[in-house]
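Usage example:
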Amino acid sequence: MTGTIQAPVGQPVATRVNWWRDDASEAVWRTVALVGVLLALFIIGGVSRPDIFLDPSRFAGNEVIVLRQAASIGVVTVGMTFVMISGGIDLSVGALLALASVWSTTVATQSYGPGVMIFAALAVGTIAGLVNGILIAYGRLVPFIATLAMMVAARGLAQKISGKLTQIVKVDSIKQLAVRNVLGIPVLVFIFLGVATIAWILLNRTTFGRRTVAIGGNPEAARLAGINIRRHMLVVYALSGLCCGIAAVMVTSLANAGSSTHGDLYELQAIAAAIIGGTSLRGGKGTLVGSVLGVLIFIQISNLFVVNNLQLEYQLIAQGAIIVGAVLIQQFRVAALRRPAPPGA
Amino acid sequence: MKPESADLSRRRLMLGGAAVGAGVLLAGCTSNEDKNTSTNNGQTKVGGGDNAAPGKAVKIGFSAPAADHGWIRAITDNATKQAKLYSDVTLIPVDAGKDAPAQVAALQTLVAQKPDATVLLPQDGAQLTATGLAAMQAGIPVINLDREFSDSAASRLLIKGDNYGMGVAAGLYIGTKLKGRTDAVIAEIAGIDSLPLTQDRSKGFRDALATFGLRVTNRVAAQFTVQSGQDVTTNLLQAAGKIDAIWNHDDDQGVGVLAAIKQAGRKEFFMVGGAGSLDAMEHIKAGDSPLECTVTYPPSMASSAMSLARLIAQGKGLSDLVELQVPKQIVLASETITKANVDKYLPLGFRS
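Running the assembly step on the lines above writes:
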């Protein structure tokens, strides 16, 4: 064999003209579609509440609020995207968020000041994520089972520590985190963008990211290629835990309290956002841009419903419809790609 | 030893040391002892008069759903503490489990222990009715706490709060202040919308406002949790650029509601709370937020239920009433707490 790869004889080399038809274009198309959904939501908003969505300054103010409300679930979804791309799932994210928020707002922790509170939240999240990773990588538990157990246990521990009471934050700098803006944008949004950017670099520009995709796509091939799968899984789940810790600080500051009820159903929201963003439950596929857009769509929907004075039940129905719609489109598109090209194409 | 491995072991030692240090720090952070405030002090009471004197020793069973929320926790705390105040009462608490069938099973084991009376906050009134009936037929008086059985024969005494009345009290307060302003923007932040108690509260609120010619213009429902309170309120404040009054059904979620109001920097309206938590009362007293009033749904009813269970078990009546026995039904009034009377109510405030 020579070192060069040649196009099979008799077939033309894929022309650049048709680039949007090939497999690699899927992520681009999906991003365009998700942005389209967001724009459609804005148009619905413009029709139903022109006073908010067509007034530039009020619209901007509203969208800043949407971004701030999206920050915590967004960070969790970033961690979840890594886990799902690696072929796993993390059902414990909501419970870890609750545990980290409770641990970081006990009377004792608050007495040490904001630094220790933030450290406690991040450390608790990371350590609990590591436990998930150890159970999965070395205990050989299925991710679904291991993180399900962690979900139940972490919620229980959070209730035990808090005594099921709402732990109100008395430390001013933590409260200020949710209020403070830089250049008109909330600090929480900057943290979210920071986390998303670092994660994008990690996934797309480092060996760690490529290995995550490789493990999710074909674990056996990845192992034969010399990737230490166990250690890699450990890190992936710890990262997801760390994201929960960061989100816990955000939620604590927004709600002005730590509580064992925080992060309710976050696991489902994060999985749903990742899926409509194009991350595959089977692993090996997914983008952070898609996940972030998925989160924004969900938060925009709930904003749109409250702004129009509609009740929660409609919102849940709409969210369900969007999940199903996104997955159906994905399947049709994949099926279309696999179909042999018509003659003469 | 090769230099590399020495280096590695030193690194491991440092990492291990750091991990242990972090672990110790974290473990130390789980303490929730607060020396300044002790919880739920003023919510138990032994009355004066003949009934306070120790009587026949009685065993009283108690079952309430697991606390997932400050109010339910206060119920359990109060019942337990109230029972301890009497030297003649032995409390038999049974865990209610996760759902109504689990509570039915738990109550059957309780009935087998033959208590002299039992206080029961059902997971679901309708589903526990048959069990209440069976206990009554076995000669054990059942004190039905708050969530009502579907058959009144299933309990010797029903003691409950007034959800409809709570909505009326909130509506009266807001209506009185906004009287004559038919264009007023009045927002309602409900709790879990599928619960009958939420629907009763909302109906009372609407009915009371209607008597003033006012109506609810914006309504959102949270989940009784702090985070959901913050979330729906943030969006609500976007929906309505100017608000005159807000009624929030529940002071637990109210922590999040107040946080959202503060984050939005809005001050043009006043707010009424619900339930009567310590945190809400402290805000009312300090006057540092739009919250200027809360309407009660007091968990002290558990203490009263325990006292009444003791009297029923001992065959005594209420000393101020003419009748020889405890009445069949007690509905607590929803009281309105404002800055004027908050000091009197502070001891009754529960930690949410």
